[in-house]
Amino acid sequence: MSEHPSPYASAQAPVRVRIPHLQQMKAAGHKWTMLTAYDMYSAAIFEEAGIPVLLVGDSASNNVFGNTSTLAVTVDELLPLVRAVSRSTRRALVIADLPFGSYQASAEQCLHTAVRFMKEAGAHAVKLEGGIEMVPQVQKLATSGIPVMAHIGFTPQMEHQLGGYRVQGRGEDAQRLIDSAQALEAAGAFAILIEMVPAEVGRAITEAIAIPTVGIGAGPHCDAQVLVWQDMAGLRDGQLPRFVKQYADLRAVLRGAAMAFAEEVQAGAFPGPEHGF
Ligand code: KIV
C-alpha cells in the first residue's frame, strides 16, 4: 500500500475515484471528505479542491428547491442535478441520494430508482436511508452491480417518526446502530453514513465494520466527514446545526458583489467603455 493512498495525491491525476480507493484509505487510516454538490460550478470547484466524493443529496430539497424538509424532492427533480454534477467532474465519485418514497416499498422499487440515476444521470453509486430494514434493498443493489452507501443514525426522511431533529444512538440504543451497520455491511453496502450520534457511538460503529464510515455530527473517529456545501461555505443564513463548521462567508461575499453591481449601475460606472462594443 502506498504511503499516500489518496487517488488525489497527484493534483493532475485524471483517475476516477472508485470504491476500492475509499476502502484503501480506510485501511491506511487516511481520512477523506465528501461534500454535497448540486450543479456544475460547485462540483467542478470541489473536485479542483481535491474532494474525492460528491453527494447529490436529497438536501437539494431545502438548498436548491426551497422546501422546508428533504421529504418533498422527487426523483425527476434530482435527476438533472445528478446529471450536471457527473457531467462536470472527471475524478470525483458521484453519489445520488434516493429520494423519500422512491425505494422503501421494495427491493425492486429501489433497484428501479437506482438504475434511473445510473443510466439517466451518470451516477456512480447511490445512497439510501435506514437500518436493518433496508437490508433487502442493499442486497438487491449490491448484487445488481450498484454501489450503495447506507445512512443511519438520524435519518432526515424519517424526521416525523423520529420526533424531529434529534441525536440518535444514546445509551442502549447505540447497539441497535452497531447491529444495523454490521447488517448493512454484510448486505453489501460499500460505506455507512452516520448522522447525529454521540462521538463514542461514531467510534464504536467505525471500529465494528471494515467498510468506511462517513460522519456528519458523528464525531472525529469516522473514516470520512461530510457537510452540506452551503453550510460549509456560509451561504445559508439562520441557525446552523451544531455539527456545521463554516469555512467561508460566501453569503457576505455574494451580497457585497450584488450591492457593488447595483451601486455602479446607479452611479453610471458600469458598464464602462471597456465593456462595450
Ligand atoms: O442529503 C444530504 O445532504 C445528506 C447529508 C447527511 C450529507 O444526506
Q: Low-confidence runs (pLDDT<50, min 5 residues)?
A: none
What percent of the residues sit in helical stretches (DSSP H or I)? 40-55%
- Would you tell me the overall average pLDDT? 95
Which ligands, by name, code or SMILES, are bound?
3-methyl-2-oxobutanoic acid
Shape: globular
Major sheet, described briefly?
A: 8 strands, parallel, barrel
Question: What structural class results from the helix and strand content?
Answer: alpha/beta
Radius of gyration: 20 Å
- H/I helix tally: 11
Q: Give the strand line-up of the largest sheet.
A: 1-2-3-4-5-6-7-8
N-to-C CA distance = 58 Å
List the secondary-structure elements in sequence, H or E.
HEHEHHEHEHEHHEHEEHH
As a percent range, the share of strand residues is 5-15%
Count of individual beta strands:
8
What does the model show?
- By secondary structure, the protein is an alpha/beta fold.
- The chain has eleven helices and eight strands.
- It has helices at 19-28, 40-48, 60-63, 75-87, 107-121, 135-143, 159-162, 173-187, 199-208, 229-232, 250-267; strands spanning 32-36, 53-56, 93-97, 125-129, 148-153, 191-195, 213-216, 224-227.
- Strand 3 (93-97), helix 5 and strand 4 form a beta-alpha-beta unit.
- Helix 2 (40-48) crosses helix 4, helix 4 packs across helix 5 and helix 5 packs across helix 6.
- The chain is globular and about 65 Å long.
- Bound molecules: 3-methyl-2-oxobutanoic acid (KIV).
- 3-methyl-2-oxobutanoic acid (KIV) binds at residues 36, 55, 57-59, 97, 195, 216, 226, 228.
- Residues 36, 55, 57-59, 97, 195, 216, 226, 228 line the site of 3-methyl-2-oxobutanoic acid.
